[in-house]
Prior knowledge:
The chain is an alpha/beta fold. The chain is 28% helix and 29% strand.
Amino acid sequence: MAIEVHPAIVKSLRWSDEAQTRAFAEALASQMQSAGPELNATVQLRGDLGVGKTTFVRHLLKALGVEGRIKSPTYAVVEAYSVPPLDIWHFDFYRFNDPDEWSEAGFREIFASPGLKLVEWPEKAGQHLPAADLVLAIELLDGDHRGVCLQALTATGVHLLKA
């Protein structure tokens, strides 16, 4: 299978409050659901501690149909969810001290399987982490406002960016 190469498509947003974060998460979830059961995407979330990455993921998972408490994977490194027919993994590599921990943890199989992979602190996994389809870089602006830069790096990312 040939790999499609796409120029990065960039979109910038400003979230003034958590309601706007939730609204974007719901729109993105809708795009993900429109891809159908064959969705296979990796979304990287970048930004400093406390900028709202996990809050965004919680809203996205709720919008995708995950019920109950959604835990941060900070200590467990990964939390798995299933909303048939979609399998979802939420990773947080913040506690990695060495990128080789990614390989040692056995994540290669998960990233090779279909489903949605949401990755916080992707830089901590170094070169081991497969390429992202979509990157959300979140930064704290004045007050509680967030600046969000979205980069679609594949055809799947372009589809998701339509949210």
